[in-house]
Design brief:
This protein is an alpha+beta fold. The chain is built from 10 helices and 13 strands. Helix content is 32%, strand content 28%. Strands 1, 2, 3, 4, 5, 6, 7, 8, 9, 10, 11, 12 and 13 form a 13-stranded mixed beta sheet that branches. Strand 10 and strand 11 form a beta hairpin. The two termini are 27 Å apart.
Length: 346
Amino acid sequence: MTLAIRSSGRVCGELISPDDVRWLRVLSSVKHDIYQTPGYVRVAAAHDGGVAAAYYGSQGQDELLIPLVLRNIPGGGASQDAVSPYGYGGILSSGGESFTAEALNGFVKVARSHGLVSAFLRFHPLIGPSAEDLLAHGKIVRRGQTVYIDLAGSEQNIAAGFRKGHRHNLNRLSSTGFHAHMDRWEWYGPFMALYSQEMRRLKADAMYRFQPAYFENLRNTLGPALHFGVVLSPDSELAAAGLFTVCGDIMQYHLSASEPESLALAPIKLLIAQAAEWGRARGCRLLHLGGGRGGSADTLFAFKAGFSASRGTYHTCDLVLDDERYESLCRPLLPTGPFFPAYRAQ
């Protein structure tokens, strides 16, 4: 599949592969997170059954990058669509507002030239251009808030930002002999099994049911940027575990799971508290916990909100690039509400 298709206009743009040197060049010049790195996008694409790519636009010294996963559309023949990699892929731009707007015009032209039917973009709540920069082309959806812990202060200041109930749980866990550690990789195998068990218990959507191959691929690809925390019981049995990424001074809470018998004690709280202190000691500026499921203000969001009052805002963008093809793909399906793209709702 040819990825390089040039756009017209003042901004030169094309779809590039993760091997393209320009991808890393953009990352070297702008603040970014793990979700924009070519290795992470490759891992996300493998999980989604797609191909890792990015839109690259440039004008003089200004550059813009949109990480993407290109996917074949089931029942759509040769048709494809695009989605941001799992997480907060967003947009990176080294230029000002006028360049960014022009480069986004170029993205739409290139995507259409490539034959993409639609694109679903997830924006980063804390870095990159505003979602409103794509208002002229698609539908911007405000999904909700995300939570992050400011790690710039002391350990005591960070703990003071925890909700009273969280602090009570943490004291109870520590006093009864639970203990947390980072990078105890000997527990990685049991964690994979525990995660699968938890997704089945929660009846999670397919996108969250990561298989062992995903976890192995993530570790092999991200290397020292991936960290693994565990909480062990007083008998040194696995009570909870989770993955974190570090990119520059941004630490991300990625995936986690708890042993069912320990849920009432909420050992994940000890895991996050340990990760926050670990990240602070290593110079991370913040630990981003994310939001609720789909960005909603649900019980998951309420749990995360107990660690900090600091918030980001999460937006997505629905882009229909080929109206006629989009409608033809949606026509045989029953109405499915706001899910985008609608032809994938079932």
